[in-house]
Fold:
Amino acid sequence: MVLAEFSPFTALAGGMLIGAAAVLLMLVNGRIMGIAGIVGGLLGGGRDADTGWRLAFVAGLLLPAMIAGVSGGLNGPAVDLGLPVLLGAGFLVGLGTRMANGCTSGHGICGLSRLSKRSLAAVATFMAVCGVTVYVSRHLWGA
Amino acid sequence: MKRLLSAFAAGLVFGSGLLLSGMADPARVLGFFDLFGVWDPTLALVMAGGLTVTALGYRWCLRRAGPLCAVQYQIPANQSLDGRLFMGSALFGLGWGLVGYCPGPAILSAGGGVSQAWWFCLGMVAGMLVWRALEYAQLPQGRVAH
Structure:
């Protein structure tokens, strides 16, 4: 197996920050930190009791994003994927995460942490399908 | 007000964690799944760090009577392993593997000016709205979905 260059300490520390954010949202707001749920919940049109904190969370997420964007610290996809793939993959991620009630944060971090059977099944499924997709697109497609 | 501030802080810490860990970079995410290419173990370490803190933190939270600024903890009670869960997760995995963005990093990158992430997020919002419309159509008359 060929290993990529990676930085174990920033990976662990970054993961711990993600965990700290999940704990903070549970401790103060009593809510699961699921990004698909937070964003999906904002798309209904109407306002409800959850609209405010969801908007605040997204605003908090966008602040470091803009700082990283301005300072040139963000990489997009390594290859130019083209509009149909970007739109289509985004559509699948949006539809799938809402259908399954969770994504990498909601099922992956929060669900696995509380030993949810549903989250374990979801994570095993989306990781397996993601792995097959990467294998097919990188090693079979046009190879 | 405290609920808004804590949600803002959680978003900020979450986004900083994504950036520090490298998970905002789709190449790094896809590298983890490319077992037969150049393998990048980063995602496993991010999950390990995140799960350790969250598992310990949640246990500590849930020992308290309730959250600091809300009536009660809202923990999903659904336990069923149904078709929706597997079908939705499979669709998500397919889209994730094609580009390397899951919802958090996609929104972060779009906000940071990555034009490919704008198109991805446009598709993602459309997919979420389609699911919402399908859910409404399935509901008995007069009920409101949340």
The radius of gyration of chain B is 18 Å. Chain B touches chain A through 119 residues (CB under 8 Å). Helices of chain B lie at 2-21, 26-33, 42-63, 83-99, 103-111, 115-138.
